[in-house]
Prior knowledge:
Number of helices: 10
Radius of gyration: 23 Å
Number of strands: 0
Strand content: under 5%
Number of domains: 1
Shape: globular
Distance between the termini: 27 Å
CATH topology: MetI-like fold
Largest sheet: none
Amino acid sequence: MANPRLxxxxxxxxSLAAIPFVVLIVIYAIGSHVRxxxxxxxxxxxxxxxxxETFWRLATVADRRSGDILxxxxxxxxxxxxxxxxxxxxxxxxxxxxxxxFVPRVRATLAPFVAAISLIPPITVLPILFIVFGLGEASKVxxxxxxxxxVMTRSLAQAVLxxxxxxxxxxxxxxxxxxxxxxxxxxxxxxPKLITAMRLGLVPAWIFLISAEAIASTGGLGYRxxxxxxxxxxxxxxxxxxxxxxxxYAIDRLFxxxxxxxxxxxxLQGESL
Length: 273
């Protein structure tokens, strides 16, 4: 009997990874073909040809009203909002995470508060954010921050708590003060944890971004999807969903590649996802 834990070579891994995608494509193609046989004007499951033509038009032809190429203008807007939100959330998480994990008084004061905030569904505070920050960019970025920063903070605080006490004691024995402990012992060990927290935060960040753009925006990937839904334009919606998935996957892989290159020591034990 073959060992189920046997490591796979790269071609085998790639082949196995492709199987679910191929199955999904085949199922969709069959469903689209069957529906279009019954109704050639069916909009629910457009053909791959129709979606490719629409995607190409959105990516190459300028819009008559705005003069922008919609796919790229929407992508630029969404990525700018996503990047700003994740950056602010990471800065907050790093600052509070180190303080909560390293300073007992701060942990006793803020840990319960951060835990409670992290349990609030961010979508429920979206009306409040719109009232406070208005309908501009600030409210969309704020929603991403509210939705990701508390969870990222808890993750980093736990990473600080997981640092072996022996390392802290040895550093103190050698004369390290609190500032040196943070910069020489704590931070070097949690940088890869921050990258991991940001990768995990990308999933809810995309959800909150698309939600905010759908409710109050004049551009962005989420705005475009919800704008055309009234026309049942699945030849636009499905390619946009696929494009968002590609972007999300590419950003995740970039974070992972950066982490492996910058913090190789954190990826030495076994495979990393």
